[in-house]
Write a structure and sequence with these properties.
mainly alpha; 4% strand; 11 helices; 3 strands
Length: 233
C-alpha cells in the first residue's frame, strides 16, 4: 500500500523510509523514537505507528533494552512495492532496476506462456485494448499515458496466467515501470520495437500460442535490459 494519504505518519515514512534505504542510517543504527518525534514534529504515537510500518517491511527491528535498530539490507522485504519505490529513488537506482528487470525476465515469460493457455476472452480483449493504448501513446512524448496502458497490460498477463503467485507480482512490476518513467530511465518516446512486441504478444496469447508468447516476452525483457545499459549504466 502506498504511504500517500496516511496523514502524519505517512509524512514521516516518506522521509525516513528513503533515508534508511539510501543508507543514511547504516545497518545496526539505533533510532530513538523520542528524538525522531521531535525532529518530525509529531507525537510519539504517530512515530510509533511509522516505526511499526517500517518493521513490517523488515527495515527496522525493535530490541528490548536496545531500541529500534536498522536491519541489514539482506533482511529487507525487497518485494514490498514501497521499498522498491524508495530504492528506485536512491543512488542505487541502476542496480535496483537491473535486479528487478532480471527478475521479470525470469518470471514473465512463464506467465505469458500460461496466459496463452488460460486467458479468458475478456482478458484477451483487455490485452488488445492495452496494447492499442500503448501504440496510441507511443509518440509525442506521452509517457504517462503509455505507462498507464503498459502497467495494465502486464497486470493482465500476470493475472491471466492463472497462477496466484504470479498475479501478486503485479504491484512489483507496476513499481518498476513507474520508476523507469518517473526517473527518466526511458527514451522520450518508447522504443517502437518494444511497442510492436506488446501488440504481437497480445495476439500470441489470444491465439493460444504459449511458445511464441514466452519468446516475445523474453524479447521484451532483453530490450528493457538494453535500455538500462544505455540510460542507467
Amino acid at each position: 500500500m502506498s504511504t500517500s494519504g496516511r496523514g502524519l505518519h505517512g509524512r514521516v515514512l516518506e522521509t525516513l523510509g528513503p533515508a534508511i534505504t539510501a543508507g543514511e542510517y547504516p545497518p545496526g543504527s539505533v533510532l530513538r523514537t523520542d528524538e525522531l518525534a521531535q525532529r518530525f514534529d509529531v507525537s510519539r504515537s504517530v512515530m510509533r505507528e511509522a516505526v511499526r510500518v517500517l518493521e513490517s517491511m523488515h527495515l527496522l527491528e525493535s530490541r528490548r533494552r536496545v531500541g529500534v535498530t536498522v536491519r541489514p539490507k539482506a533482511e529487507w522485504n525487497v518485494y514490498d512495492p514501497q521499498v522498491i519505490r524508495w530504492r528506485l529513488a536512491g543512488a542505487d537506482r541502476p542496480q535496483q532496476l537491473r535486479s528487478l528487470t532480471v527478475l521479470r525476465s525470469a518470471i514473465e515469460p512463464v506467465a505469458a506462456g500460461l496466459a496463452a493457455k488460460n486467458a479468458t476472452a475478456e482478458q484477451c480483449a483487455q490485452l488488445t485494448e492495452c496494447a492499442l493504448g500503448m501504440v496510441a501513446n507511443s509518440k509525442g512524448h506521452r509517457l504517462e499515458g503509455y505507462l498507464f496502458h503498459d502497467i495494465a497490460f502486464h497486470r493482465v498477463v500476470l493475472n491471466a496466467s492463472g497462477n496466484e503467485m504470479f498475479a501478486h507480482l503485479g504491484d512489483l512490476v507496476a513499481e518498476v515501470l513507474t520508476g523507469r518513467t518517473h526517473h527518466e530511465v526511458m527514451f522520450e518516446d518508447p522504443d517502437p520495437a518494444a511497442v510492436t512486441l506488446h501488440v504481437r504478444l497480445a495476439e500470441a496469447i489470444r491465439a493460444g500460442d504459449a511458445g511464441h508468447a514466452e519468446e516475445l516476452t523474453r524479447e521484451i525483457a532483453v530490450g528493457a535490459l538494453h535500455e538500462l545499459d544505455i540510460l542507467a549504466p
